[in-house]
Amino acid sequence: xxxxxxxxxxxxxxxxxxxxxxxxxxxxxxxxxxxxxxxxxxxxxxxxxxxxxxxxxxxxxxxxxxxxxxxxxxxxxxxxxxxxxxxxxxxxxxxxxxxxxxxxxxxxxxxxxxxxxxxxxxxxxxxxxxxxxxxxxxxxxxxxxxxxxxxxxxxxxxxxxxxxxxxxxxxxxxxxxxxxxxxxxxxxxxxxxxxxxxxxxxxxxxxxxxxxxxxxxxxxxxxxxxxxxxxxxxxxxxxxxxxxxxxxxxxxxxxxxxxxxxxxxxxxxxxxxxxxxxxxxxxxxxxxxxxxxxxxxxxxxxxxxxxxxxxxxxxxxxxxxxxxxxxxxxxxxxxxxxxxxxxxxxxxxxxxxxxxxxxxxxxxxxxxxxxxxxxxxxxxxxxxxxxxxxxxxxxxxxxxxxxxxxxxxxxxxxxxxxxxxxxxxxxxxxxxxxxxxxxxxxxxxxxxxxxxxxxxxxxxxxxxxxxxxxx
Length: 471
Description:
The protein is of the alpha/beta class. It has 15 helices and 23 strands. Strand 9 (219-225), helix 8 and strand 10 form a beta-alpha-beta unit. The radius of gyration is 23 Å and the shape is globular. The relative contact order is 0.14.
């Protein structure tokens, strides 16, 4: 995941303000004050109060707040979707889906607040402990620093806040500088639902603020979604605290000759170009058995040509802008570099401002950035293979492994391939970008550490406390 340029304005008095713009037309949609490292003491003082307040809420109270927030988001879904379109550039249909998912994330978090309190420990099952009884509870960590990206500006914030609140923590939330208004919308909605406002502190600032917060001893956990380089810097600066990171992917999809080629092509095109390709589990590399390669390629190109790119507010638009014009230029450059190395463009590779046309390429050499790294752009690469072993070797030839996928009519082969692929999740007869918000979600290799998915994040954001009674 690349880091597009941020627009910050400094007044004559030395005060910095973040300028939030619409990625499609560049219009200013909001400004927010920026904080620097000097603000950390005040931020942590408020968060300490949030810890006390949050610990004082019963599990039932946390459940009720999160469930009310889900209801409010459902009621205000069109408002939320419109904000996502203006700020993140998702198409209106995609934005509505994100709002529905965020609503589910809050509801799942409400369930976690009262469904996973701990369990009984069978002390008396061990010699010498026959007279002991006890249990363990799941207790809050304290202050959690949540750093979120721009590509799912609402739902990924919900995935940080919901489980943290369910577990009784306080959160310092640093949303993407490109999509802060959507994050603030969700926090304000939680407060409207009854969340004491000290529990979540929203901050805006550059990497210097982030570095100071990451290093703060009182922060007990950093939950980060973003690029590998930033994640590595966080790991170096964090010290002794829990880390949960989702650092991106480079999803391979293996299509065997016995697959339903029409269904596979449709799913792969959807998976490649959803959210203008700014999707960490989006289908990026399509590995196709040679005997059906030409037929599959024809279907992928046809489905891609049918997509309409442009104004994300229009119901008819399938692919909206990238988050900034710089991001679209980077996508264009990735393809140009691949072509210079021998790749061939099958369709797309046109840019108008921040809109980069859905692009299909083939024969991308493995050393190219477009093949080796996460593109995070509306570009998909096709390649042929001859054997299952070759397909798996090429699929795994990347340092980032979030999701992978395979299409085949042979269930034995499907399960064998799924077992052999190195990935945090393998989708069978589905696009790599399939996800529900209750499943464990995270990467293998350098794709991340820890797992999201509400129940799993809740466990990451709490710690067991053992109570033992010698009767």
